[in-house]
Write a structure and sequence with these properties.
The chain is mainly alpha-helical and about 55 residues long. The protein has 2 helices and no strands.
Length: about 55
């Protein structure tokens, strides 16, 4: 997995939260180790965006 793919997964998670999608809507990238890392990174992005939104409220 490239750094770009890792970064894209994070940004995609943030954008999903901005769009109002649930955390459970994270992509099912695949079954290998890299896919697991991408899925976790997506959730980190979603969680970070959620934290920022809660702090601003």
């Amino acid at each position: 997995m490239s750094q770009q793919q890792f970064d894209q997964a994070y940004e995609s998670g943030r954008r999903a939260r901005q769009a109002g999608k649930s955390r459970d809507s994270s992509p099912r990238y695949g079954m290998d180790h890299n896919s697991l890392l991408q899925r976790e990174r997506w959730r980190e992005g979603w969680d970070d965006e959620d934290r920022e939104r809660r702090a601003a409220a």
